[in-house]
Amino acid sequence: MFRACASLPHEELALRLEACRGWCARLAPEAGGMLVFSRLNIYYLTGTLAEGALWLPLSGAPLLLARRGAARCRLESPSIQCRVVRNMRDIPAACAEAGMPLASVLAVDMAALSWAAGERLHAAMRAASCRMVPGDGIFAQCRARKTPWELEKMRLAGARHHHAVHDLLPRRIHAGMSEYEIGREIFRILFSLGHCGLNRMGAHGEEVFLGHVAAGANGNYPSHFNGPLGLKGIHPATPFMGDPDTVWQLGTPLAVDVGFTLEGYHTDKMQCYWAGPSHSIPDAVRRAHDDCVDIQRRAAEALRDGAIPSAIWREAEALAAARGWEAGFMGLGGNKVPFLGHGIGLVIDEWPVLARRFDAPLESGMVLAIEPKIGIPGVGMVGVENTFVVTPHGGESLTGMEDELICVEQ
Question: What single-letter DSSP state applies at residue 281?
Fold first, then answer.
């Protein structure tokens, strides 16, 4: 007899279903419910990472339509009715047979589907006389504000994350190690602390493994990744983690930007190290790092109910420029990104973003990673990143606030 590893508490599930229905009524008022395809959104609403679809009417019980693995779905989500549906064209009939017919207008998380799958869904819904409207914003809003249950997971992840890179890693690395060797040490530490082994990205086509390990000038290495820290990586086919041929040299910085995942929930943190004694840190490097710490502090203090993300970004951008870092702030050259931070939760890159045109006010319970970083030509990158929860009194760090440039002298 099999048992589930874990199940969502009934009260937690009810909160999520109620929140999604509320946002559906606000953002897609003509819709009679949500037809969900993203596996993470299905997990968020059921507690099982099923492949298929979930029909969530505005009233009544949800119906999970799994392509396979129905037995596992029933183990992990015993309160959710589940049926096997192999093809999209069978969805309307399966819902009707379960006594939960589809509404005439459906809110759909369209970003979850490929073009080909979207075409098949469109044909199936047209045949069933159902019209689809965008529903991605519903889930962005729901998942942005964490429940107390979710925050408990993220606090635990954050504490372990800080312990890993601030307390444990400096004892295991030294100048003369390659980026790849340092990456392997990080991986051992993270796994020993319960890291689940998978960092998820939400943006279409974006991938990450472990995170970024960038020694010296590689902190400004040209990168495909939508972030300011440069990364050479293991190979052009797998430009992640760290380069086996790049050795961390004395008198250079090391940037370690990694995620920690606990029971599906992420925290994000960057810790910078210096190979050598404190007195060997050049003034420009020290000033750049200290300015990033100050920008993070100011942004964190602004993470209150009603704060406007775009205003936080503009203030940070202006402060960096006033202190002479306009060229390198948030990346050098083509690595520059137009944001200061991002939401985080079931994926590393959630809503909202501290960037232009993000003008919806923040709310308590939202969680964001703030990551001010400065690229210095010929030297590398310094800066900080921590994960914060929005509160009425400002951001509460989940990943520590000891943001010094750690000197590794052995």
Answer: S
